[in-house]
Amino acid sequence: MSERRLVMVPGPINYEPSVLRELAVSGLDHTSPEFVEIFADALGKLREIVYAGKEHQPVVIAGTGTLGMEASVTNFLTKGNRVLVVSNGYFGDRFKELLSRYPVKTDVLRPDTIGNGVEASRIIEVVEKEGYDLVTLTHVDTSTGVLQPIREVGKKLRNTGTILVVDGVCSVGGEEINLVEDGVDVLFTGSQKALGVPPGLAIIWLSPKALEKLKELKEPLSPYYMDLKKWVEVMRSYEEKKPVYFGTPAVNLVVALRKSLELILREGMENRVRRHMVLSEAFREAMKALGLGILASEKYTAHTITAVKLPSGIDAGLLVSFARSAGVAIARGLLKEVNYFRVGHMGPVNANDIIATIAVIERALYRQGYLSRLGDGLLRAQEVLARHGF
Amino acid sequence: MSERRLVMVPGPINYEPSVLRELAVSGLDHTSPEFVEIFADALGKLREIVYAGKEHQPVVIAGTGTLGMEASVTNFLTKGNRVLVVSNGYFGDRFKELLSRYPVKTDVLRPDTIGNGVEASRIIEVVEKEGYDLVTLTHVDTSTGVLQPIREVGKKLRNTGTILVVDGVCSVGGEEINLVEDGVDVLFTGSQKALGVPPGLAIIWLSPKALEKLKELKEPLSPYYMDLKKWVEVMRSYEEKKPVYFGTPAVNLVVALRKSLELILREGMENRVRRHMVLSEAFREAMKALGLGILASEKYTAHTITAVKLPSGIDAGLLVSFARSAGVAIARGLLKEVNYFRVGHMGPVNANDIIATIAVIERALYRQGYLSRLGDGLLRAQEVLARHGF
């Protein structure tokens, strides 16, 4: 395999080489003043990318997005609490599956059809009627490419006792999130998607309201390793340059995270979000020009990942394996009831990657006899890219 | 800071440069055939370093040793179960603290004095009398440098219903462990110590007995992310080259792990254990030649880490910060009731590192006025090294 392969699955991705080089840092232990500075800097930058203030606390723990998910709910729940899960796919449903291990009652709200999100008004209505202790939204569901808007719900819940947890695994660093304006209490993500760092870090942001709840809640359901009270203390100690110990931070990944955040802030979050919008538009439009449908409805389209529907005659497995053999890793669908494939376009993705990916998909469809000519997808993408000055 | 600094804390350590380079691997996603091969190879090698058979299952999860600890106990316990924790320090006590969050009853067995281990006969007697569902041993407690022998206890428990969990965080890859002969059911470690891989991986080995219990136990207490049933399925799927998804593996760390395991097996575990024995002996003897005491008693001395006692007049903080400023990172004690410092000597540590570390400690003690002349520690270490042909 050539290491130059394009990794267009919805995470892991193609990382910036400068970020990868940071992973090989030597001579650094978790309590050295140099690492303490780096970790503190990374935490500060984590606030910046989601427009959080000093009063928000980011937390970085060795683990995956799923660890982030479990920590994000269990720390704010106690026995008998009620949770509303808004699910637009596999990862929304994961909240439900996860919570079934805990002594809480969980209701699930789903869109009318796969590919839609749930109307904010519907969510608010149910929450007002039922008075949940915690509500979860999946900002972008990696299985469907559906983006669930946050702000309207967040504004409504902000001054209530309900904690709003947002799964930002497939969105943070690519989609617009403003912790304050969006009224998010707990946001979590993994490192290997739009944040552009190899997998192994779960990152969680806590609002002042969440921090208050953390302090007050008696007998939270969190496992020991996911005890955010302990982790918040550790993070604060690093920011105060007097590190305390709970578990050894994933030093090398944190150093790489700092580097990636530096690159993200140099680009600027607004530019970055716009880039994700333009590149995803080019990709979606190309797929449509090839006669394919997008799983996510227009109103709820994510910009970090696209799920593309295939006619029943086309074999998604064949398409994906041809693309891989041609040097572009894309992913099969996660839902069994739909014939589709998924393409991630996030982090340091660029127009070259998008063009090459569209080209491979065209050739794969041509081989399977679905297309009788090549070039329509590329042409459409070119038009979109040119229109946006790319 | 020079990245050539010696990292002689008890983990993180100085990694092999070839292992660090692997971290920067590009173009690899978690389902690519290339990564599947690498992960399967790493799992096979993980069996080899602890002399496990095909019937043992290693599991690699993104997280720290503490995650490994929580997964290792909660999957084998159900409400009302009884646990015996054998604790020789901070990390033994961590089992107790962790288990206090779960509906089980935990008893703790401690040595008569700090620095001792617990007699196997005493453990066996208590287990036979009380009939615990699970017993934990800390093979090497990083806080005290005490090694708790496993085999006698393991042989006794092997044919009983009791699950033997061993914390190998500060031992696997440096101390001798033979899963079969030692009768260990669940062994866990972190990547950043004697295994020689940057922090971020928890590794767990399960015996056939543990795998059976995993299958049979109704309502285990494990959190969702730590559900070993799910992870065992994932590991087996990678070994069968048909990966299933639960959480994204820490791809780059796993690639580095494979490399480090390759180096470990090339050296050979017997040679590796002997190297740890010789280097730790040289270090201990040097400390004694300087008039310092070793916290661990001779019978229970670890070979991966040494805790060195200081006379009350010597400031451990000053000693550690001088050493750091001189390019050797060593660690303060974790227990408050003893004036001591800790030195890790594990993984790819060599005689040069040991000599340089002893030299720095000599100079630090000389500066503080504790030593009136230099060289006694070095001379003693030289004699030990030369005697062993190093």
UniProtKB/TrEMBL annotation, chains A, B:
Protein's name in the database: Aminotransferase class V
Cofactors (names): pyridoxal 5'-phosphate
Domain Aminotransferase class V: 25-333
Keyword Disulfide bond (UniProt): no
Family per similarity comment: Belongs to the class-V pyridoxal-phosphate-dependent aminotransferase family.
SUPFAM superfamilies, per the entry: PLP-dependent transferases (SSF53383)
GO biological process: glycine biosynthetic process, by transamination of glyoxylate
GO molecular function: alanine-glyoxylate transaminase activity; L-serine-pyruvate transaminase activity
Keyword tags: Aminotransferase, Pyridoxal phosphate, Transferase
Species whose genome carries this gene: Desulfurococcus amylolyticus DSM 16532
Coiled-coil intervals: none
